[in-house]
Design a protein that fits this description.
Elements lengths: L2 H15 L9 H13 L2 E2 L5 E2 L3 H19 L15 H8 L49
Antiparallel strand pairs: 1-2
Helix pairs in contact: 1-3
């Protein structure tokens, strides 16, 4: 994220918290106002509409009120910027022991007594009958 985008996000965050940042509000009034702000959708600089939790708005207000101003509302740089986050060769090594061969997939043709729809030898056939339900519900009697 370049400097201009960070500035735009900081200005957006200020626009979200501006009405609750006043010094003349009591804690109760500020809390009610923050709940109202959290209930609304806010247009983001990227063109999307976003909602923010009360905790997020409170965090932005604390940063602003501690004297950080607009600089405190800028998004922080990622700690892993410029670092490769995926190592496909490590994933392949870790997944190799967990892979099982697909023994039921084969290129051989069905032999005598075996159709193409019969289950493989290593898997038993499933029961063809569905489970049955009791004919009436059994409830404890309430006449006691």
């Amino acid at each position: 994220m370049d400097h201009n985008q960070q500035e735009q996000v900081a200005l957006h965050r200020w626009a979200v918290i501006a009405e609750a940042a006043g010094d003349k509000l009591t804690a109760r009034e500020r809390g009610a106002l923050v709940r109202q702000i959290a209930a609304r959708a806010h247009p983001h600089p990227d063109g999307s509409s976003r909602r923010y939790s009360r905790g997020t708005i409170d965090r932005w207000l604390r940063a602003w009120r501690k004297g950080g101003g607009l600089a405190a509302l800028k998004p922080a740089e990622r700690a892993d910027t410029g670092v490769v986050r995926a190592h496909p060769e490590l994933f392949a090594e870790a997944a190799a022991p967990q892979r099982r061969p697909k023994t039921h997939r084969t290129t051989r043709r069905p032999g005598p007594g075996r159709t193409s729809r019969s289950p493989p030898e290593d898997k038993p056939a499933r029961a063809a009958t569905p489970p049955t339900l009791p004919s009436r519900a059994i409830w404890p009697s309430s006449s006691a």
